[in-house]
What we know:
The protein is an alpha/beta fold.
Amino acid sequence: xxxxxxxxxxxxxxxxxxxxxxxxxxxxxxxxxxxxxxxxxxxxxxxxxxxxxxxxxxxxxxxxxxxxxxxxxxxxxxxxxxxxxxxxxxxxxxxxxxxxxxxxxxxxxxxxxxxxxxxxxxxxxxxxxxxxxxxxxxxxxxxxxxxxxxxxxxxxxxxxxxxxxxxxxxxxxxxxxxxxxxxxxxxxxxxxxxxxxxxxxxxxxxxxxxxxxxxxxxxxxxxxxxxxxxxxxxxxxxxxxxxxxxxxxxxxxxxxxxxxxxxxxxxxxxxxxxxxxxxxxxxxxxxxxxxxxxxxxxxxxxxxxxxxxxxxxxxxxxxxxxxxxxxxxxxxxxxxxxxxxxxxxxxxxxxxxxxxxxxxxxxxxxxxxxxxxxxxxxxxxxxxxxxxxxxxxxxxxxxxxxxxxxxx
Length: 408
């Protein structure tokens, strides 16, 4: 038998990029929840933004009937069915007054995160530069790590009401950037802007030939009469912008994994081309259910999800204030971006949010996400998701109040 020569060093079968994805905190919080449950605590999970409601009965009926058809199980189209794209375009016009070409300006996605994770790969080359917010949803920066794209972070500061200061971006960054990614209202911070701000953003993007990526996953979660706006409402935006829409939060279809990107046809077709090599698209019955969801919304058949989350926001924040923790009231989304309570002991800012979130969970069973999971500027904050019924939110607020009185 021939002798074999073995390498003296063990090969590392884990990409270095994985360490730059920045979302390990969610696994950490899951471990804390397990620890809290093991100690006998009843965990109230206000961490992950997963809706606790089911889609409307009409949506579930369409899905169930489509699943039972024998002809539903062939490969779907990676760009989305013509029926889905036409209905998405019709909804964009009904909801925002924006006319979209369903043939060339929409691509179906397995949830908006699918598109957000892959878009940098489709429109950038390794070594390119992109502008992303800090704090921001983790896949914003994670997608750049996957694509080998450099990030220039735009800080969202409390003194600016967390609105990105476009004038703070140096000319040399605009000159080099391939795209700028923003979200109004956003996650973790439900920052809202008007069309005048969007117009300024589009003017700058056109000046510097930069693609604007607008994540509008929370388009149907505006409160107190506020309705989020689409960047594509700005005249000329189709020349330089794309927008993501999701069915997860707007229609309680998180597990279905469906959304779409619409806007500039060159960017849409670049993402389509990439995805045609990566997957075969969204299961057709899910696309049919999504069509039903959009039809219901356009018919005004129900009040949508906003009233539920607005009530939860009011109940929870009112009780938190009664317990001694005053937090700002968001105008949109299912999230509260809360500065750490004054009662929490002062200390080194770095890691303080994480220490608070862990201690709160292990002492009370209430799970929240530390702000630094979303970027350096998140230190000193926590994100709270309104994903439990009002009774449980009241109980969570009371537990938090007891915790603060113990540490105060």
